[in-house]
Specification:
It is a single chain. Strand 33 and strand 34 form a beta hairpin. The protein has two helices and 39 strands. The strands form ten sheets. A five-stranded antiparallel beta sheet has the order 1-24-23-20-21. The protein is an all-beta fold. It has four domains: 1-163, Jelly Rolls (Sandwich); 330-441, Immunoglobulins (Immunoglobulin-like); 450-555, no CATH class; 560-646, Immunoglobulin-like (Sandwich), CATH 2.60.40.3080. 42% of the residues are buried.
């Protein structure tokens, strides 16, 4: 039976992406379950029937959708705290593995980014666990929260095909919470060296570490707010030194939040999923036996006010792999732009250069890719681009593509962007099933050419800055707030094109933030320079934007001219966009023929025989949007079609 073929981007975007038909088996574990049992904290279990293991799957993705439910009136802390949520698999053999971990956001009522009905998809690649995701098993959500307000929905998508490599062995070495710095209980005495032997068929083996620090002592605020290292060792030899730290919480895609969401932490950020740290151990091929160990920076804590020490929540798993199943295989795993997926909310919409994320699933380095892409529309001619560079096996790269005119001039919401890998290393791809991806996007807003940009700095002016780039990547204008509590007003007159406005705060606490009253309150606004009408900023949130945000916009010119025959003089319309009046002129000749103007659904708003040098049309009552001016030249019978915009 044919079902919808999903890719990673589809799962991340919910209904916002889709690809070519294929075979996918969907397994539901939890269906929008409130994390609301008595006491909240603890395990939520369900029995799941997975596939039997008779079919090969190229990828397996687990979607954990976090949402909100309405707490009873008077409930304290409803969805208001950053709690840990783990998804575990309890196998019939008694082994327990961690499939994914996330931290809930500060999502209390009143947050503009997490309103009632809010949902967010966290996607985990669990392909390596296929040998365990078979037949009957128990899936457990373990919620480390002491208040309610959240729901959890968990489903699995098994995508048929050949994986990059087969898993030959899997063993959990450590899983638990371990004190860090507690006197008399050093963490290294609990996270001890473990033996591991690579099974037959193994070519390489990786140690996968999921680790987060929690709790605050009275010494260095460990383990949540202190950056410390762990050291991976094989047979006592150092393999890797790894810092346990996330330094980009102020760039969180779930923003703003109600708590201290911008503070960097020990490998986690509120509202984000926890990344897995992977370390390849040398010499771990078939039959090799090693002692695998992880040591930590020496540390002695001073217990906090509650008398407790900090701890690390650790899952360490050894996974062994066979040889690559394909020599040359590239796959599109995401469209970074244009894409309306919430993960890219800081750049919201796009009219500039599209960007795709490509993964190398083969044994050979990728040095060249031919990509076909553009606006997915009937009869549209896609752009093509040949990229050169290097993508090592199992690595990903973001590839920026030249501007596509259809994407750039698109208008409105629910547009579709299409991308396809046509060739890899100047030849056909070994696996075409992951070469194509479509995503929904919302077109960039149309702004007027004459703009006024106002920056009011706060008490830390050196942190406040904006920059404006055109679609060639050239810096057009910028402003740094060099003096505290000062208004800076810049007036610009921009030619037609796509622009990228970037607003920064180098302190990563926005122009205003509730937990830092000392920085004062700054402001930022973009308006029509002629009438001071606001242009609107999708991710400004009154200045509570953390490290910064980006706003793309289009200054329209002549959007497109379709010369159906090609021999008549040029049809012109101005101003474009029009306000209350549109003037149509046939450049190089006089108007003498039939003119019709329709909206994009075909509804006729103007139709008459015209003559003379130009025709003025009242557009005051027309809705803002795109229209087609269709003109048939009477002497020749030839036709012209032009796209114009009305903006009120």
């Amino acid at each position: 039976m044919k079902k919808l073929f999903y890719t990673l981007s589809l799962l991340l975007a919910g209904s916002a992406a889709f690809a070519a038909p294929g075979d996918t088996t969907k397994v539901q574990a939890f269906a929008t379950m409130p994390l609301a049992k008595a006491g909240f904290y603890g395990a939520y279990d369900t029995t799941v029937q997975f596939p039997t293991g008779a079919t090969r799957y190229r990828n397996i993705y687990m979607t954990l959708q976090l949402g909100k439910y309405a707490c009873p009136p008077g409930t304290q802390y409803c969805a208001a705290w950053d709690y840990t949520l783990q998804c575990l698999l309890l196998t019939p053999g008694g082994d327990t593995v961690e499939l994914g971990r996330l931290i809930t956001p500060y999502a209390q009522n009143g947050n503009p980014s997490t309103p009632s009905g809010w949902k967010y998809n966290y996607i985990f690649d669990v392909t390596d666990y296929y040998t365990l995701l078979q037949n009957n098993a128990t899936v457990r959500l373990y919620y480390y929260g002491y208040s309610g307000g959240f729901t959890a929905d968990v489903k699995f998508d098994f995508i048929e095909g050949t994986p990059a490599r087969n898993v030959t062995g899997l063993k959990t070495l450590w899983r638990g919470d371990y004190w860090y710095g507690k006197a008399g209980s050093p963490i290294d005495s609990f996270v001890k060296a473990q033996p591991y032997t690579a099974p037959a068929g193994t070519v390489s083996s990786d140690l996968k570490m999921t680790i987060t620090g929690h709790g605050m002592d009275a010494n260095q605020n460990c383990a949540e707010f202190c950056p410390k290292n762990y050291y991976v060792k094989s047979n006592g030899t150092l393999v890797k030194t790894q810092l346990i730290w996330r330094d980009n919480c102020g760039e969180n895609p779930v923003f703003p939040q109600g708590g201290t969401w911008i503070y960097d932490r020990a490998n986690w950020c509120p509202g984000d999923q926890v990344g897995v740290l992977s370390h390849t151990l040398p010499g771990m091929s078939a039959g090799a036996s090693r002692s695998v160990d992880v040591d930590f920076d020496p540390y002695t804590s001073a217990p906090g006010g509650n008398g407790l020490n900090g701890d690390y929540m650790i899952t360490g798993t050894m996974i062994s792999y066979g040889a690559f199943n394909k020599q040359t295989d590239a796959g599109i795993v995401d469209v970074v732009a244009p894409n309306r997926d919430k993960r890219f909310s800081r750049s919201n919409v796009a009219c500039g250069k599209p960007t795709i994320r490509v993964q190398n699933n083969g044994a050979n380095p990728i040095t060249a890719l031919k990509v076909k892409y553009g606006l997915d529309s009937a009869g549209y001619t896609y752009s093509q681009y040949t990229w050169t560079g290097t993508i090592a096996p199992l690595q990903t790269a973001d590839i920026e593509l030249p501007i596509d005119n259809g994407v750039r001039s698109a208008f409105g919401n629910d547009k579709v962007f299409y991308a396809q890998i046509v060739e890899v290393n100047n030849a056909a791809d070994a696996d075409p099933t992951n070469d194509t991806l479509k995503v929904f996007f919302d077109a960039a807003p149309r702004w007027v050419p004459d703009l006024a940009i106002r920056l009011k700095s706060n008490n830390k002016p050196g942190e406040n800055k904006w920059e404006l780039y055109n679609d060639a990547g050239t810096l057009v204008a910028s402003r740094v707030g060099t003096a505290a509590n000062t208004n800076y007003m810049d007036t610009l007159s921009l030619p037609a094109g796509c622009y990228r406005l970037r607003v920064y705060d180098n302190g990563c606490d926005g122009l205003r933030w509730w937990a830092n009253s000392a920085q004062g309150i700054g402001e930022f606004a973009v308006t029509n320079a002629n009438n001071r009408q606001s242009m609107g900023l999708a991710n400004y949130f009154g200045g509570d934007f953390g490290c910064g945000f980006e706003q793309q916009f289009l200054i329209p010119g002549v959007l497109s001219i379709d010369d159906i025959s090609g021999n008549t003089p040029e049809l012109g319309c101005f101003p474009n966009p029009a306000g209350s009046q549109l003037t149509v002129v046939l450049r190089g000749a006089s108007l003498q023929g039939q003119m019709e103007i329709t909206d994009l659904t075909g509804k006729v708003l103007f139709s008459e025989n015209v003559s003379g040098n130009e025709r003025q049309i009242n557009t005051r009552t027309w809705p803002s949007g795109l229209y087609l001016v269709k003109y048939t030249h009477q002497p020749t019978g030839e036709k012209k079609v032009m796209k114009v915009e009305v903006m009120h």
